[in-house]
């Protein structure tokens, strides 16, 4: 969405409402993206405004989108809603030429009287979207050997394998447990 800010720059209006939907690209093939494997059920809903107070312009936007993603542990589909807020100062590109590059992310840049929100919003969606989605906080995941979803019960194929370096400690622990049991039996 390209917003025409020329009337605001000319002082003809002090506030401009923003309300539109944005369809994100399909990330199913891009394994380098944080959004790989995420299916968006709805377009990104964007609502906000740009205000001009004596030449100081401020952009405030709330955006949200419905999604379905795989649980990071058990791979089941997890539906959800992701939202984020954007608050930036709006300034023409020629005013920002002297700004340090590190500070440019704090600005929404006007080019030829227009403000393009699409690229900025899609970048924020990708950067802020959680990299790990869980179906529930205590998800047990899948068995490493047979692949069974452990949330529905044990598979029986997992046996505690002991690191050979810790075997002497396990032997001492077993001896301590036996001594404790013998002392209880004597009482």
Query: Can you count the beta strands?
Result: 8
Which structural class best describes the helix and strand composition?
Answer: alpha+beta
- What average pLDDT do the residues reach? 87
Radius of gyration: 28 Å
Q: Please describe the biggest sheet, giving its number of strands, its sense, and whether it closes into a barrel.
A: 6 strands, mixed
User: What is the ordering of alpha helices and beta strands?
Assistant: EHEEEEEEEHH
Q: In what range is the share of β-strand residues?
A: 25-35%
Describe the overall structure.
This protein has 187 residues and is α+β, with helices and mostly antiparallel strands. The chain contains 3 helices and 8 strands; from the N terminus they run βαβββββββαα. The strands form 2 sheets. Strands 2, 3, 4, 5, 6 and 7 form a 6-stranded mixed β-sheet that branches. A two-stranded antiparallel ribbon has the order 1-8. The relative contact order is 0.15.
Note the main attributes of this structure.
187 residues; 8 strands
Write the SSE topology.
Elements: E1 2-4, H1 6-9, E2 15-22, E3 39-40, E4 44-53, E5 56-70, E6 77-92, E7 107-110, E8 114-116, H2 118-128, H3 167-186
Parallel strand pairs: 6-7
Antiparallel strand pairs: 1-8, 2-4, 3-5, 4-5, 5-6
Gist of the model:
Helix content is 19%, strand content 33%. By secondary structure, the protein is of the alpha+beta class.
